[in-house]
Write the structure tokens for this entry.
Amino acid sequence: MTLLRHPEPSPACAPDGRLTAPAHVTLPDGFAVELAAGTHRSRDGRLMVGGSPLRLVRLTAAAVDRLGDGRFTVTDAASAVLARRLLDAGLVHPRLAPAPVADTTVVIPVRDRADRLGRLLGALRADSATSSLPVLVVDDGSQDPSALADVAARHDVRLLTHPSNRGPAAARNTGLRQARTSYVAFVDSDVVPEPGWLATLLAQFADPALALAAPRVTALPVAAPGCLDRYEELNSPLDMGAAEGPVVPVSALSYVPSATIVVRRAAVGAGFDEAMRVGEDVDLCMRLHEAGWRVRYVPSARVGHRHRTDLRSWLAQRSQYGTGAADLALRHPGQVPPLLVAPWSLAACALLLRGRPLPAALAVGLTAVIAVRVARRMPDADHPVRAGALLSLAALRGTGEQLLRCATRHHWPVAVAAAAVSRRARYALLAAAVAEGLVDHRRSGTSLSPLTHTALRRLDDLAYGFGVWQGAVRRRTAAPLRPRLALRMVSRWTSARP
């Protein structure tokens, strides 16, 4: 074990956030891609709709031939261009063999938690793929540093220390500066990786423009799970779900948590913003995207995590997560809106909420007009009118769900204030709280009863929303509460030429 002690940094040592763009983005020969499960194609293969944000793409005849039954391999410059465009849009996903586990340093930020650190190091050393990798443990101002030193010595890993606590971003950056390998795997101390996790993630870096890959973070099993254990199993903010894809701001996958990530060291510059105690992982994803790098979520690689299930600490954590929204909104204007909707769908929902025949008829008429406009944009679809109607109804439903979520999460203080002075608002808020919880209960497939799940869902949202407002007041900004209007329901491309 090697022990290094680092002095407190001056403010000038914090990263400035600027990242350089990738040198090139051309996918190499042999890079295989496969059509994403959520991508819809017309019968002749010329029209594709999918991705997030939703895109409408028309392919040339040559591109249709290249895509074939939905899978192809890069063999030349033309196929590399086609694969890159479809991959960045989320219309296809990489299909790559696991890569050899090498040229990677594991960095573990930790404060106390010697037992969890020992469990993680034991798992890394027991896995033949990671047993010989260099490991840097960064003690971020532990109250009992000797306990961590004993664990590090027992597993023969290098220990770096901060005399006082500087936060997870600074701890990771200390390890990043000491790493000498091309890739760095940041793994939190309360994580237990599953076999094969790192080989799967390293394979993604066959894409020269990829800066960061993240696995799925699932709940570690517990002997006698309580209500919060069962809720967190399917609702943890660390678990991004089963759907893989590119990580893009203001999309279904807008960030990945830093509980476990692998980065290309040359891409991330000075690393995380040390001024941020929360949300530093979201900030890094956004800065990489802004610089032109790609970020991917790869749920086929999995790590286990012991989620917080003590009610008090669980609520405190949710609230803390919410406080980061203000800093993120100021750093990345318009990229973390609580609500992203098309003006027409917002107007239609407002009309429907009136609960009267005439406004409802106007909402139906408005939706029909949009459906016709969308259908005219895809005359080569198998059923243009049906496609336009389905997309318009899906947008209307999505807006309704977002409004329900906002009323019970980001904007609940406003909703409660309105309910205090208006019986109609009171009934609307109660209906929204129950309806959103029941919809989420059905969608999640949880074993909890609808009542229990809805109650925990509301506590979750109350805590997070409180944190959002706390951060907004502290930073004197309404940025994290400001909705954003989407001027296009479907982004449209010109023909993709292979």
The CA atoms of residues 437 and 443 lie 10 Å apart. The first helix runs from residue 61 to 67.
